[in-house]
Structures are given as structure tokens and as C-alpha cells.
Amino acid sequence: MGLILALDIGGKRTGMAISDENHIFAFPLQTVESHNIIKEIDLLLKERNLESIVLGLPKNLKNENTDGTKKADDVFKKLKKKYPLLKIFQIDERFTSSMARKAMVEGGMKKKDREIKENTDKLSATLILQSFLEQKSRFGFPQNH
After folding, report:
1. Nearest to 121 by CA among 4, 10, 35
2. Beta strand pairing status for 50-57 and 3-9?
3. In terms of CB atoms within 10 Å, which end of the chain has fewer, N or C?
4. Residue 129 maps to which CATH number?
5. What is the DSSP string of 91-122?
């Protein structure tokens, strides 16, 4: 099995996480400037065996689009066009940033490290991916990608 890459698309930065080969665990990978995301994925495709990409889809509590929804949709469309052989999915990312901040506190991360936005971005991508992996293990890959 190939690896699964997750993206938490932001206005300035994108958090990235990657799965293990068995699709059980998600690991923080890196944070990149959002305008460089395609270039970074190109590099990852040369270095690793990626089989799919998961993007967090930002919605508000009422399941309505947010400012970030259009950005995530634009990246989704670019990825689908550029990488037609990869399975590309979008999943609900509500609460991932707040869950990431809470996890950092509960995990004992120092305040100065929690204030580094890149740490939240990477952990948010990791939570998006872990949620996807759990859904996949229960139901298989979603049909609409």
C-alpha cells in the first residue's frame, strides 16, 4: 500500500501529515507556505509512494462555507487536475485546530512551542488524516474522490 498525505490548507501555511504504510497511524510531516503546496507535493511524489491525498474542508458549525472553503476547493481542483492517478479526498475539518491546541496542552507542550502556528498546522493535518484513516478502516475508501 502507498502512503496517504493529508493537507490542512491555510491562507498562509499548509500543514502536512503522512500515514504509515498500513494506513493505521498519522504522523506530522511539515508546514509549507500555501502557495508552494504543489511544488512540495511534487517533491514528495519523487521521494515517497503516495497513493492518495486528503484535504481538510473547512466549514462552520452550521456546515456552511467559510473563507477557507474556497481556498481548499481551489487546491482540491488543482490536485485533481495535476494528479489524475491519485485518489484525492476532502473531509470535514471542523474542530481540528481547537483539538490540536488542546492536544498540545494536554501533551505537555511548552507554551512557547504552542504559540508557533506551524505546530498547530501540522497537528491539524495529522488529526484530519487520523480521522480519515479511522473512517477508511471502518468503511473503506470513500467512493467519491
Report:
1. 10
2. parallel
3. N
4. 3.30.420.140
5. EE-TTHHHHHHHHHHHTT--HHHHT-HHHHHH
Which residue type, as a one-letter code, is found at position 129? Answer: L
Is residue 125 assigned to a domain? yes
- Is there a domain that residue 144 lies in? no
Domain that holds residue 32: 3-139
**Position 108 in a domain:** yes
Q: Measured on CA atoms in the order 144, 99, 9, 25, is the torsion positive or negative?
A: negative
49-68 confidence digits (pLDDT tens): 999 999 998 877 777 888 88
Q: Is residue 56 within 8 Å of residue 17, measured between CB atoms?
A: no
Alpha helices in 48-66 (DSSP H): none
**Residue 145 domain flag:** no
User: Domains in the chain: how many in total?
Assistant: 1
- Cα–Cα distance list, 49 to 2, 20, 41, 107, 116 (Å): 5, 11, 11, 31, 30
Q: What is the pLDDT of residue 14?
A: 95
Radius of gyration of the chain (CA): 14
The reported pTM is: 0.83
